[in-house]
Automatic annotation (TrEMBL):
Domain of life per record: Eukaryota
Necessary cofactors: Cu cation
The species this protein was found in: Amphiuma means (Salamander)
Stored SUPFAM superfamilies: Cupredoxins (SSF49503), Cytochrome c oxidase subunit II-like, transmembrane region (SSF81464)
An example molecular function term from Gene Ontology annotations: oxidoreductase activity
Principal subcellular localisation of the protein: mitochondrion
Similarity field: Belongs to the cytochrome c oxidase subunit 2 family.
Catalysed conversion reaction: 4 Fe(II)-[cytochrome c] + O2 + 8 H(+)(in) = 4 Fe(III)-[cytochrome c] + 2 H2O + 4 H(+)(out)
Name of the protein in question: Cytochrome c oxidase subunit 2
Amino acid sequence: MANQSQLGFQDAASPIMEELLYFHDHALMAVLLISTLVLYIITTMLTTKLTNTNATDAQEIEMVWTILPAIILIAIALPSLRILYLMDEISDPHLTIKAIGHQWYWSYEYTNYENLTFDSYMIPTQDLLPGQFRLLEVDNRMVIPMESPIRVLISADDVLHSWAIPSMGIKTDAIPGRLNQTSFIASRPGSYYGQCSEICGANHSFMPIVVEATLLSCFQDWSLSMLET
């Protein structure tokens, strides 16, 4: 959950998000070093009184400012490609859930269970209980077992939506007539909040997403109770 006036990312709740945080720090360090070097060169050029008429035809300098950026780009591109492949890899999920975007709510279908489907609406401000978050809490959360590979099939019923949970590093478009998929593993129990990240109409800001990760035994009890109702 994000804090007030927070500037950085949320704490990672999945292995993919941990990799994204590491890559962010790696890329930010490269940007810092490049900015420092460029600022030093500019400062030196503005303050020195020395001149060199041969600087316009220096092959060594041209080789350095060509090879060095290429090395930096490779050092950034390789970890980025690795994470992209990790995000696309889906192998033997323990549970598959279909999330369908509507104007303006989400519906969930647990494909491993028959008749386990429900709609998830935002709780109005006047109905919130103490401790619940305004504009983020829903009446029916998507409950999953922790430390289990979860596959989510994402689509939309009317217009473009986007199913996103920042703390898990998930953002997948929900497109009418098309089925996208993503996967994640919740590293620890808790409630993780997200929102539709594609402008989908007047109430775009009022269709939040809440994923609740629990122990496997608690998830089984919840699924049985949902099937009985």
